[in-house]
Design brief:
Helix content is 28%, strand content 23%. It is built from 6 helices and 10 strands; from the N terminus they run βαββαβααββαβαβββ.
């Protein structure tokens, strides 16, 4: 059964955040709220966590995982960013955008797209996410909690606990969450291509 932890949405309790971070370090798979609905999260080096995410969402090996990053400096350690991309991404973060970019050697190969060698990155505008990332000290391997046959991420912690109790280790509750996925922008070919329109305004990346 998954542990259910209630966190204040604006002022996350450090004690609870530390519990979640410790569990992630010990290879727990968590469901946690972001600024674009719930996500599944695991430690970067957690092979089993990666496989469990794919199984829950019924995805194949070509799925673009996302590294949830604390800030732009951390993001820059894991992806290669051109000057054009740098300015545009810097201006739109933190926020509900996911950017697909060429991965650096810091990213485990199993987390990259198998052919393109790319990975998704984003910086959330969410107090709980920022507190957890700060406590953890590294990005969280993430994927939106969109279940098979659905088009929007889950938004209610108690509902996730009820439905996925047997496949998760922790469900973090932090009040009302917007159930709209991120806008996804693929910069891997040197120019922006909006591949999913979501919570972030896509017009700034369109011709």
């Amino acid at each position: 059964m998954a542990r259910y932890l209630d966190v204040h949405p604006d002022n996350p309790q450090p004690r609870v955040i530390a519990q979640v971070a410790d569990a992630v370090r010990e290879d727990a798979l968590i469901a946690y709220p972001t600024d674009s609905g719930y996500a599944l999260g695991a430690r970067l080096g957690n092979r089993d966590g990666r496989d469990r995410i794919l199984a829950i969402r019924q995805l194949d090996e070509k799925h673009h995982f996302t590294l949830m990053c604390a800030d732009f400096a951390q993001l820059g350690q894991f992806v290669q960013i051109s000057n054009n991309a740098f300015r545009a991404i810097r201006a739109s973060t933190p926020g509900p955008y996911t950017f697909i970019l060429p991965a650096t050697a810091e990213v485990p190969r199993r987390l990259m797209h198998p052919r393109k060698r790319t990975v998704g990155v984003r910086i959330p505008d969410h107090a709980l996410c920022q507190a957890l990332l700060s406590e953890l000290g590294e990005p969280i391997l993430s994927s939106s909690l969109i279940l098979p046959g659905e088009t929007e991420p889950r938004a209610l912690g108690w509902e996730i606990k009820e439905e996925l109790d047997h496949v998760l280790d922790i469900v973090v509750e932090a009040g009302e969450t917007i159930a709209e996925p991120t806008t996804v922008v693929d910069w891997s070919d040197g120019y922006p291509e909006v591949v999913r329109r979501g919570a972030g305004d896509p017009t700034r990346f369109e011709e």
